[in-house]
Each structure stands twice: as structure tokens, then as C-alpha cells.
């Protein structure tokens, strides 16, 4: 009975992940910024009024579409909300002032007005690039694969790489810090600490699972086939934005390779650098040095 119950838990997640490349019509990726104590959704960085409004913004949205066997990336960022306000401010300052005056008194009236301007300032999606079929296949493979518990193992680290990176980042830390009393004995001790895989993985998990208190980004990715739509959503604000949640099933994946694949598809924007894990290695090793190599006076220790 227990085995049957476990099978029921596993099968839905497996089915949602098994999407064949030829059945996909398009992939939609929305890059959302949340701000404020209540983490209300706003889109883009120019958000002086969006936090107070309950409007249906499109966000920084990108669409990857299969057209005649060629996968094309479109920028779906439509002129809405604060972007429209910026446009009106440049074209008609009196109209802009009038709209601004509505915000404290009547959000509903402001919403009605801004929606009328939406049609006026709407623009068509812009073709911004192409992506090979192989890239889409790699993304699908990562979405359905069960990853290991080690982020660094997922990133392809071997023992030689661990040792090489330990020395590289210790030397970099030393070049930035005032550590005149560092002798060979202390350096050897620190390198031993940095080469302990369980400590590296512990620190990596801590950094990945760090959440912002008042600002957060979310990537929402929809894989749309002729018969179904499967939605994936990032669940964290740390490096790689892990885990990826499968909202159709409430399953999740702590797989940094999904983030790397999605990050490569996106143009420069709010979350690209987080998805690609820029400075992740340095952050992990520097945190390890400060936690396992330094004493209470912030000087290197030898045991």
C-alpha cells in the first residue's frame, strides 16, 4: 500500500516533466520584480506607482516560438503602467500631472484612465534573437531530471577543480584583505577547510536559500503545447533563484542547470545575472574563508 502511494506521488511529477520538443508551440517567460513589505508584484525598475495599484501588467515577458522549425525569441514587454506614465510625461506634462493627482484620491479612476492609454501606446512584439532546437531540448531534459543534492556536483566539479578553486579564491581574498600575519601554516590550514566538500555544499545551500526581505524576483515559465500548459516558477531570491516549482503539481527541483539554461535564453534584464549564478563561486569561497579560516578578531588561524 505504501509503495502504491509513493507511486501516485511520483507519476504526476514525471508526467508533467515529459514534454516532447515537437509538441511545444511556444514558451513564455515572465521576469517579475516584487517590492515592499507585502511583496506586491511590479514589473521593471521604474515603479513609483505600480506598488500601489492592482493592475494587470504584462511584465518583462519573452516568448520563444517555433516558426517553420526555427525557434525565435520575442520581447513581449508591452508599454503599460509606469512605462506609459513615463511616455505621457515626455509628451504631455499637463496630462501626466492630472493622472498623478488621481493616485492618492482614486486608484480605480487612475486604473480606468491608464487602461485607455494602453491601446494608444501598445507596440508589437520585437524579434530579439534565435535559439537552436538543441537548447530547448537541453532545457526540457533538465526540467525532468532529478538532480543530486550537491549544487557543485551539478555544476560539474571534480576533486581537481575543488583544489584549484580553493587556491584561486584564497589568493584573491588575500589580495583584497589586510592579512599581514598570514604564514604558510595558516594558509595550509585554511586550504584544508576550503577543500572539505561537505562544508562547501553547506555554504552553497545557505547562499542559494537566502531570501530578500523587501525585494524579490520571480521567473514564471510556461511551456505551452497543443493540449496543455505546464508552468514552472522560481521559488527563491538567492543565486540561481532555486528551487524551480512545478505549479501544476506542487513539485520542485533544486537544479541550477535549469537556471543556467533559462538565463542563457533571456536577454539582459532583472534576473539574468542571478539565473546564471554570476559570482556564485567567489561568494561561497569567501563566506567559507570568513567562517572557517578566521578567528573572532578576523585574523587567520592555524587550527
Write the layout of secondary structure elements.
Blueprint (H helix, E strand, L loop, with lengths): L1 H16 L6 E12 L4 E3 L17 E8 L2 E6 L5 H11 L1 H13 L1 H15 L4 E6 L1 H12 L6 H4 L4 H18 L7 H11 L2 H12 L6 E11 L3 E6 L9 E3 L4 E3 L2 H10 L6 H5 L3 H14 L10
Antiparallel strand pairs: 1-2, 1-3, 1-6, 3-4, 4-5, 6-7, 7-8, 8-9
Helix pairs in contact: 2-3, 3-4, 5-10, 7-12, 8-12, 9-12
Question: Any overview of this molecule?
Answer:
This protein is of the alpha+beta class and 303 residues long. It has twelve helices and nine strands. The protein has helices at residues 2-17, 81-91, 93-105, 107-121, 133-144, 151-154, 159-176, 184-194, 197-208, 256-265, 272-276, 280-293, and strands at 24-35, 40-42, 60-67, 70-75, 126-131, 215-225, 229-234, 244-246, 251-253. Strands 1, 2, 3, 4, 5, 6, 7, 8 and 9 form a nine-stranded antiparallel beta sheet that branches. Strand 6 (215-225) and strand 7 form a beta hairpin. Helix 2 crosses helix 3 (93-105), helix 7 (159-176) packs across helix 12 and helix 9 (197-208) crosses helix 12 (280-293). The chain is globular, with a radius of gyration of 24 Å. The protein starts with a helix and ends in a 10-residue tail after the last helix. The model is unreliable at 1-17 and 36-58 (pLDDT under 50).
Please trace the helix and strand order, writing H or E for each element. Answer: HEEEEHHHEHHHHHEEEEHHH
Query: What's the helical proportion of residues?
Result: 40-55%
Shape: globular
**Biggest sheet features:** 9 strands, antiparallel
Into which percentage range does the β-strand content fall?
15-25%
The count of strands amounts to 9
**Count of helical stretches:** 12
Mean pLDDT: 76
**Can you tell me the residue ranges where pLDDT is under 50 for at least 5 consecutive residues?**
1-17, 36-58
Rg, Cα atoms, Å: 24 Å
Question: What structural class should be given to the helix and strand makeup?
Answer: alpha+beta
First and last CA, distance: 53 Å
